[in-house]
What we know:
By secondary structure, the chain is an all-alpha fold. Helices cover 41% and strands 0% of the residues. The protein is built from two helices and no strands.
Amino acid sequence: MPLFPQRPPQGPQGGPPPQPQRRAPGVPRVPGPSGDPTKSNLMAMFQTDDGKFDFDKITGTGKQVMDLYSQVSPMITKFFNR
């Protein structure tokens, strides 16, 4: 028995087909050597419009990751030490 019988079915049960995900504007699609779309999209986030790597963006992102880790790691340590 469906949870909401008045609602039309969605998804694989006969509803409309799922829409493909769209890339953010300004992020070029650059295929990686392995053909892995996740890897190529990740690398494209750190490239300029002409395809060169933006090292300022790479170092800025690395700094943000380290700052986030330093803030979150004490909470994670407390959680696992219970």
